Each structure stands twice: as structure tokens, then as C-alpha cells.
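User: quick one, sequence for these C-alpha cells?
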């Protein structure tokens, strides 16, 4: 007697299709969620190292804390650019708004009771396929956590850096994200949006060459001079009054 122990081919195919559909529709099985807060690879190492450093050398309560991705991390002149404010820069290269919302705001800001937070996120999100609306949802989660914990703390939100190359191909998404962030900030007196996008774009509609490292998305000292000119006049007059 011959017994066929192999499943029928069309049943195998149907089973495979069903499993595939489940894996791509159920949140628990998503291979790469758009708004995942999982910190991976070098970003995780930077985060863990910085977290340890901050715990060992915490900022003074009532300071101004900067969080964000590499554009923030690379702002090495921030203490001089925003003098006389006491500034602590906790930028982490490669990070996204979801990570700032789920990790950084909770562990690098709230425990140290800053009077103000300066936030830069969004460019890595857009480069990685997150939509402007997705960034907005993560931002809402971030400022909700901050305000619930520290209702007197102010939040300054920087516009997306218009880096050259492939990233600039998404300039429409940059502007859409900026528009969403600005409108959200306008809802509350303790939040302010600062346009750091348009000052980095020249009269030809392209990123200013002198502001970016050739062949790189990151800014030169000239780019950070643009940041200083855009951010300082907004942040310093408000925060100077709270310096001790």
C-alpha cells in the first residue's frame, strides 16, 4: 500500500500565503515597523555609553539639554553659540524621533529636570522611510511625556536640515514635516518651532555648499553658524532670565 505523507502542493502554497499575510499585517510580527523605537547597532552603543556618562556626571537641575541625532551631536560649539546659557548636548548620531520619544526624553532629559529642551530629529526618519505624519505622531508622544513630567519645561524644536544629495530629493517631505511640527508647536505656549531649514538653502533652491561637508549630509562650521544665527535669537532672550 502506498501512503502519501506529503501535503498537497496547493495546500502548502495556501499555507505559505496565509502566513505571509499574517506576518505583514499583525503588529507583533512586523519585520521592520516604521516607527520602531528599537535602538540598534552603533546607535545603541552610543546611547548606552552616553547614558552611563550622564549618570556619572549629571547636569545641574534647571539647565538646558539638547537631544537629537548627529546634527545635534556634532554641534560642538553649542556652549559658545548659546552663551551664557548652561547647555548640555546629548545628541546621538543615527537616532530618530521615535527613539527620542521612547528613550532619550525619558532617560536623558526628564530625570535631570531641565528648564528647557532643544530637540533635533527627523532627517534620519525621512531617510529611513518614515512619513511626515509618522514623525508627528512620535513627536506628540515625546512632548506629551515631557510635559506630563515637567509641565514648566520649555521645548524648542528645530526644522529639518536640508542636506544635499539623495536626502534633498525628499525636500517636499522636509517641508511637510516642518509644517506639521510648527503647527503643533503653535498649539502650546511652552513649545517653539525654529526654522533651521530655509536658512541652509540658497537662492538657487539648493543646499548651500559652504554649509555641508563635500559628499556628506553633515554640516561644516559654516552650517553651524547658520544654526547659531537662527537658534540663538530665539532661545537666549527667553532662557537668559532663568540662568543662575
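Assistant:
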Amino acid at each position: 500500500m502506498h501512503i502519501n505523507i506529503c501535503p498537497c502542493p496547493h495546500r502548502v502554497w495556501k499555507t505559505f500565503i496565509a502566513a505571509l499575510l499574517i506576518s505583514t499585517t499583525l503588529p507583533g510580527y512586523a519585520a521592520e515597523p516604521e516607527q520602531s523605537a528599537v535602538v540598534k547597532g552603533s546607535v545603541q552603543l552610543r546611547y548606552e555609553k552616553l547614558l552611563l556618562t550622564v549618570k556619572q556626571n549629571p547636569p545641574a537641575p534647571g539647565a538646558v539639554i539638547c537631544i537629537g541625532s548627529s546634527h545635534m551631536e556634532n554641534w560642538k560649539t553649542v556652549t559658545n553659540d548659546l552663551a551664557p546659557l548652561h547647555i548640555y548636548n546629548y545628541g546621538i548620531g543615527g537616532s530618530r524621533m521615535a527613539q527620542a520619544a521612547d528613550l532619550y526624553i525619558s532617560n536623558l532629559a526628564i530625570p535631570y529636570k531641565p528648564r528647557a529642551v532643544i530637540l533635533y530629529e527627523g532627517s534620519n526618519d525621512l531617510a529611513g522611510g518614515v512619513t511626515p505624519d509618522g514623525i508627528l505622531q512620535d513627536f506628540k508622544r515625546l512632548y506629551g511625556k515631557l510635559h506630563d513630567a515637567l509641565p514648566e519645561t520649555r521645548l524648542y524644536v528645530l526644522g529639518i536640515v536640508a542636506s544635499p544629495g539623495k536626502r534633498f530629493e525628499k525636500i517636499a517631505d522636509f517641508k511637510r514635516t516642518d509644517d506639521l511640527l510648527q503647527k503643533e508647536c503653535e498649539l502650546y505656549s511652552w513649545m517653539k518651532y525654529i526654522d533651521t531649514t530655509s536658512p541652509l538653502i540658497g537662492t538657487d533652491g539648493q543646499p548651500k555648499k559652504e554649509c555641508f561637508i563635500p559628499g556628506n549630509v553633515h554640516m561644516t562650521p559654516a552650517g553651524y553658524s547658520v544654526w547659531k544665527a537662527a537658534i540663538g535669537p530665539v532661545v537666549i532672550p527667553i532662557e537668559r532670565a532663568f540662568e543662575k
